Amino acid sequence: MATDYLEITDLTVSFDGFIAVDTVNLTVLKSDLRFLIGPNGAGKTTIIDAISGLVPSTGSIEFAGNHLQGKKVHKIARLGVGRTFQTSTVFEDLTVLQNLDIAAGAHRTPLTLLRRRSAVPEEVTAALETIGLTGQIDTLAGVLSHGQKQWLEIGMLLVQNAQLLLLDEPVAGMSHDERNATGELLQRISTERTVVIVEHDMDFMRSFAKSVTVLAAGKVLSEGSVAEVQADPRVQAVYLGTAAAAPTGAEI
Amino acid sequence: MKFLTSSRFSAFVPFLLAAVVLFVLAPGILSDFRLNLLARYLCFAIVAVGIGLAWGSGGMLTLGQGVFFGLGAYAMGLHMKLDDAGPGRAPDYMPPTTDWLPGWIEMFRSGPITIAAIVLLPAAVALVLGLATFKRKVRGAYFAILSQALAAAFALLIIVLGSQSGNYTNGTNGLSNFRSFFGYDLNDPVNQRMLFYLAAGFLLVMVFIARQLRNSRYGELLRACQSSEERVRFLGYDPANVKVVAYVIAAAMAGIGGALFVPIVGIITPMDVGVAPSIAMLIGVAIGGRGTLWGPVIGAVGVAWAQSTLSEQFPAFWTYVQGALFIVVIAFLPGGLASLGSVIRNARGWWDDKRGRPAEPPVAVTDDLKTDVGSRV
Amino acid sequence: MDVVVSQIFTGLSIGSILLLAAIGLALTFGQMGVINMAHGEFIMAGGYTAFVVQGLFENAGVGLLLSIPVAFLVGGLLGVILEMTLLRRMYHRPLDTLLVTYGVSLILQQLAKTIFGTQGKSVETPTWLQGPIELFGFDFPKTRVFVLVLAVVTVVGLSMLLKATSLGRRIRATVQNRQLAECSGISTRSTDRLTFFVGSGLAGIAGVALTQLAPVNASVGQAYIINAFLVVVVGGIGQIKGAVIAAFVLGIGQAALEKIYDASLARILIFVAIVLFLQLRPQGIFNVRTRSLA
């Protein structure tokens, strides 16, 4: 499974002539936990959108030996690419179990789909354990707390058996303890998978990132470990640490 | 396991009740005339079961069920007219000189082909329109408007086919004056009763199918599509396929309802299949509770009963009632009568809540329309 | 050549009617997301307004011209009443607005039948609109030219309203980002009401125009509402120019098809063409890009 990694070459995304992502090269290996950071409009979410097939792009996106570009969103998902969104999008009218069961079932045959669920699938039980929602198995997802919804989303990625996880601000709005729990969960998950996280929370990033890519104005500015990136003067100039140098649009 | 078996049993109680009402009580109490009226309402209830599936579970506001109802009805009507005319002869409404019929009319001479067409024609039309729209992520309001335009176009098509020299559909007059139904004399009250049992039986089968679908994994997936189609897509499903299945089944059910309508009522015209009757088919579903299994059935029978009771004597008054029902139910009781209990329970809390709070803030473009815009980029 | 010119004129004429019927929808449906099926009955109300107003004046021309602003007010008021009583609680359920407003449309139609009877009411054509007018060496009915001019004036007026006035800026701001608009001190409630007033008022004007082509009756709205919505769908939401192009393309298309087939078949073919068109451009001719998802 040496090919189980994400390789992006010369990725460019433009909206009506505005170049949101400009010839980005990115390689994320299996068991990496890569954070994408950068000021607003740097193209972080757009890169995730391009990988998951939401926006058209040029260049090349390859994961586990498959070219993803030009494929439809659900076909890309079937190749083991899972993602979350800035605002959590669980199925609010369905229970936690139903949410997870749907996520686990993309490869079910029509005949299986037309039958009633006879037992809780094994991977769903395992995921419930991992995300700590075993007690809420029959709760409607709509009444979960914000943090629980985010975890449910991660649980859905797990049962989906995604090998490449793209998470868009997974800890936004979470309490400090919830953040830590989520970070540890993500670290555990990442040992067997490739994980890419878009994040604005610098503390969270410093605590849990295995590697970091800094983007600015659609280009890769710097890449490396947290320490390397923080030491990079270009990063300091546009974004991190030194508040005096922070341009408008930078957060935190 | 014991819980499971008992809950399964209790789920069949409504079926048992419905069967007793339809097969024992109604035929025992009602006159032949009333029974025939009830049979007519049951035809609309069959359509309503399908709408409950497509609209209630799948969120597809289908304003064109009259088209599928009409396809089933005209297939059956043509068969009965051809049957009445006798082998090799044209139906009585066509010009007397007609000595040749096109293949698409001639095929309805065959009973088996007609029965297949009643299900397959609506299903095929729904499949084509469903794939053409859902695959291109045309949905929400756009789908509703297109399905309504389809109803308008279909009613016109029936009229056009009747206005040409062959007079294949008898235009605005529609098909009527049937004498027999698959060899059974329609003037015989016994056969009219048989038609009632047929409609009742089909209704129970349709509700059973809907129940199985709703409780299956597919049913959960369908509701997930209503909740967030995009999310379903990112889990590796094509929501277009999920939705089109429900839409096609709803269309087939409407076709069956239409096909039974013709021998029971004895007439089918373009007026029964156009824009207005198509929307009217929704109101019963909304009143009964679009998201429930039995709500659409009860609502459709209730509305059809109210309509035939009121509109015969006061047609204008019925229009006001119908309009008011749409407004009151959809605006103030979107869950239908099925949700009345919880609405009343919440009423007190809501009243207390409302005191210190401004009116609901308008959020112009959210929910379906917003996902529309987003995904249509 | 004669045929081509007269066909194009017929097409533009049909297109201008579609445009008048649809332009208000482009505002209420396209910009606010409300699917107002009663829009057709606001058109009807405009027609009856012309009938009533004209009855008050000796001079048919004065009555007709005066009925244009009055019909705008009548349509607009009906729209505001609808918005304030029902729609404002339903902005988060756009699909349901379709059914609620359909109920309203049923009631308005029946009211019109009760008040004005089922027979169509003719609105007199003033002498200066009677007969043909010669343009480029061809004769065209003056009434159709009047409708065409009215459509163009209405669209230009609306575009100027949206571009150049503070109300227009408020409408556009609210549509593009409601929360931000609210934060910037715009009362989105009153903007919604005003948008609905203008959109519904335009239906009233359309109603006046239609009286010059046929007597007004209770079902005139039904005849136009579906095609008007199709114009907005094909045009793409959020854009007035999309509706303009769609209306005239559909108008010319329908005129051409009616020349070859009969009117009913033409409408069926137009429907098929629209479904096929949406295969190529599901978002319509124009649309506003958003980055929102879910």
Automatic annotation (TrEMBL), chain A:
Gene Ontology MF terms: ATP binding; ATP hydrolysis activity
Tree of life domain: Bacteria
Stored NCBIfam families: urea_trans_UrtD
Protein name: Urea ABC transporter ATP-binding protein UrtD
Swiss-Prot/TrEMBL keywords: ATP-binding, Nucleotide-binding, Transport
InterPro entries linked to this entry: AAA+_ATPase, ABC_AA/LPS_Transport, ABC_transporter-like_ATP-bd, ABC_transptr_urea_ATP-bd_UrtD, BCA_ABC_TP_C, P-loop_NTPase
PANTHER family in the record: CONSERVED COMPONENT OF ABC TRANSPORTER FOR NATURAL AMINO ACIDS-RELATED, HIGH-AFFINITY BRANCHED-CHAIN AMINO ACID TRANSPORT ATP-BINDING PROTEIN
Domain ABC transporter: 6-242
Annotated Gene Ontology cellular component terms: plasma membrane
SMART domains listed in its UniProt record: AAA (SM00382)
UniProt entry tagged with the keyword Cytoplasm: no
Segments forming a coiled coil: none
TrEMBL record, chain B:
Name the record gives this protein: Urea ABC transporter permease subunit UrtC
UniProt main location, coarse: membrane
GO CC terms of this entry: plasma membrane
Keyword vocabulary terms for this entry: Cell membrane, Membrane, Transmembrane, Transmembrane helix
Superkingdom assignment: Bacteria
UniProt subcellular location: Cell membrane
Gene name as annotated: urtC
Cited PANTHER family: HIGH-AFFINITY BRANCHED-CHAIN AMINO ACID TRANSPORT SYSTEM PERMEASE, SLR1201 PROTEIN
GO MF entry, a single one: branched-chain amino acid transmembrane transporter activity
TrEMBL record, chain C:
Membrane topology note: Multi-pass membrane protein
InterPro entries: ABC_transp_permease, ABC_UrtB_bac, BCAA_transport_permease
Pfam families linked to this entry: BPD_transp_2
CDD domains: TM_PBP1_LivH_like (cd06582)
GO biological process per UniProt: amino acid transport
GO function terms (MF aspect): transmembrane transporter activity
Transmembrane domains' residue ranges: 6-29, 63-82, 94-112, 145-162, 194-213, 225-252, 264-280
Annotated compartments: Cell membrane
Keyword check for Membrane: yes
Keywords: Amino-acid transport, Cell membrane, Membrane, Transmembrane, Transmembrane helix, Transport
GO CC field: plasma membrane
PANTHER family listed in its UniProt record: ABC TRANSPORTER PERMEASE PROTEIN, BRANCHED-CHAIN AMINO ACID TRANSPORT SYSTEM PERMEASE PROTEIN LIVH
Family: Belongs to the binding-protein-dependent transport system permease family. LivHM subfamily.
Protein name in the entry: Urea ABC transporter permease subunit UrtB
Protein source organism: Nakamurella leprariae
